[in-house]
Amino acid sequence: MESAIDTHLTACPRTISRRVPDAYQPPFPMFVGRADETLHQVTMAYLGVQYRDGGQRTAALAAVAEIVGTFDIADGPAHNDITRHTDKEGYVNLIVVGYWRDPAAFCRWLRSPDVNGWWDSPERLSGELGYFREIVSPRAEQFETLYAFTDNLPGVGAVMDDISGEINEHAYWGSMRERFPLSQTDWMESSGELVVVTGNPADGGRVVVQGHDNIALIRSGQDWREAGPEERALYLEEIQPTLQAGMDFLRDNGETVGCYSNRLVQNIDLDGNLLDETYNIGHWRSLEKLERWAESHPTHLRIFTTFFKVVADLDKLRLYHEVSVSDGANQIFEYLNCHPSTGMMRDAKVMASR
């Protein structure tokens, strides 16, 4: 059985002890993505289009198509997908998610005339649509993955090189943290606050939020596209209701537990058709806040219990997650014409002088 932490990312000596003994044997197999030593850092970009009026759907999908079209120019992402969700305020949000293996390539793409010109165009501020970009670039030691399958990895796994064998660090509280290479020597504590540095959420227009070190981002996915009738029913009747309840709690009450933003999204194609795949996008003040909710809150305990009850029967139902932390200097949170509770704006402090 392998460690989730690859050999070239193993710290010696380890200064933070694990929660379980070395002889621990997990009750079922799980796997992690593997990347060779050339992967030093990745970029995860969540690029959103927001609208309230159903009559704006066509325009919003056209904007999504423009974003996806820029991925074909030089230095575009190695992997992307598109999602849809309705937020607490009743706004529909379409999000294009791109993954880059090299942040330098991402920066070149971001600064290209096709991308920068579109984002900075006055049209972004004058129409009925809102736009946002939430971007983090964790180093290789700052993220972890976990999969119940070994092929066609989604998300950040798509820009990695391989898949592990069965790994040891899962199925116990604290295992998420212990899959982080950085956890061997660093508690990954958060520092600072979310601060509005440009604009004012209440006024709309362009708002830039400054993040802080070790904001945690989780993407936790469920893919039932290939599932047969029994597994499909297992997901839709057993897993999805408890998942929805937990995600709704975080969407509506996340500020009480340290969750800055939570979105349960469903994948779509370029025409806006729903696909049989969902995932949760959660931004947390810290890994510790995410862990505390996961280990103690009734909404997550029900999700965890349900998963353990059905995991042995999974075949084509694909469950996974990826979790990262990032340095404040490697984060971008920017909003144009979005309602003031969008993303990181809800919890960001507006300076008194603004």
TrEMBL record:
Query: Where along the sequence do coiled-coil regions lie?
Result: none
Q: What Pfam families is this protein classified in? A: Dehydratase_hem (PF13816)
On the tree of life, the source organism's domain of life is Bacteria
Extract the GO molecular function terms from the UniProt entry.
lyase activity; metal ion binding
- Cofactor(s) essential for the protein: heme b
Q: Which InterPro entries match?
A: Dimeric_a/b-barrel, OXD
Q: Which UniProt keywords apply?
A: Heme, Iron, Lyase, Metal-binding
Please state which protein family the record places this protein in: Belongs to the heme-containing dehydratase family.
Q: What is the name attached to this protein's record? A: Aldoxime dehydratase
